[in-house]
Amino acid sequence: MKKMLFLLLVVIVMVFPGMAAVDLSADDFKDVRGHWAEQQIVAAASLGFMIGMGTDDQGQQIFAPEETVSRAQLAAVLQRTFQLDYGQIRFIKQPLASDYYHDVDDEAWYAESLVMCAINNIFATGGNFSPQQPVSRIEIARSIVRSFDAKGISAPMIMLMPFYEDTQFLPQEDINAVTFVSNTGIMKGYNNYFRPESDLTRAELARILMSCISIMAINETNDGEDYQVPAGQTFVVTLNSNPSTGYAWMIKNVSDENIFKPIASTYLAEDFENQPLVGRGGREFWQFQALQAGTAQLQMAYARPWESVQPSQLFNLQVTVTPGPAANTGGND
Predict the structure, then answer these.
(1) Which of 133, 203, 208 is nearest to 177 (CA)?
(2) For the chain: N or C, fewer Cβ within 10 A?
């Protein structure tokens, strides 16, 4: 597995050296090496959806994979991953976290993200938010469904009602949430138990986020299409890859990097019961930043970088960047 990751990083350094530092620094968490969620943690950090928890006494970066996720952390992560924003809502004055919750300082590091979550109905508003309270598995399931709904994202899923011994007495919304995350593969139970009230760890959250990104990202089925994205937002392209064969995806051309540009990339190997399947390949993830309104072409090639033959696969996408959201104040809504 280490050899596969190293090979992919070599290719990235050769083609886009400015992005390689993201992967190298994300892989530098002292406390995730050998962890069951190491791959998902590295991938989520490489794409900027999660960050570390500072350094230890020796000055080494740590991720704290087994620490519980707080509600403040969840608000920030959901806002980054789903790019929650004002949408079409306009306000007479700038909304503040204190407009929605009694116990949140408007200067808190998570306050702006929490406002976006409140506007998009991710969390119930009014009363206290309890930012340091641990997040339960049912709360993340509920929040994930609401985030998909807020962004209008449809997710392919199997039509099957999952059976868990400990979910039958949940409210209907929570039963629907469990069904959604289970049937999409975003979350799973264990031995017929979903453990809805169990606290969520940071490692589990990384895995959940990468499952969400895999669903939301542009993929092989979008080859040749026109994709629209607002200026200021990012988008992710994910494609099947198998570094053990020497092949890797490379950006062959972005016709105008004033319109959008690549900012990060990572690789996630296929796994089975939290163990990478060596030699089975996985998926590459490429993240792009939409900069200004306009249209540009993206072409990617799947090839061995040392060979001069034609690439075995090409991926083409026309990206139309639309103007970003207007100012959120001054309207009557």
Answers:
(1) 208
(2) C
